[in-house]
């Protein structure tokens, strides 16, 4: 998109320049971030971290779903949605 730079500049004008955390928080509060995408990113990274630490993917998904008070299916879908987009089909994505 040719207007990408203009759009990004308008976004930067909208947020405070104090620090990155406050900028992201302000964007979140103003509804400028996709909550579903942010949740999916957190889930993907947290499951990946746990698997790299030696936990089974199934156990990591189950425990994270309990911690987030959401369904096992929601967490599982977030993990495998990432793999589907990246063209990964095997279980060794982490």
Task: Label this structure with key terms.
94 residues, mainly alpha, 5 helices, 0% strand
Helicity, in percent?
55-70%
- Average pLDDT, all residues: 82
Shape category: elongated
Largest sheet: none
What's the order of the H and E elements? Answer: HHHHH
How many individual helices? 5
Please report which band the strand proportion falls in: under 5%, 5-15%, 15-25%, 25-35%, 35-45% or over 45%: under 5%
Radius of gyration, CA atoms, in whole angstroms: 17 Å
SSE-based structural type: mainly alpha
Describe what this molecule looks like in 3D.
By secondary structure, the chain is mainly α. It has a domain at 35-85. It has helices at residues 4-14, 20-29, 35-52, 57-67, 72-85. Mean pLDDT is 82; it is low at 88-94.
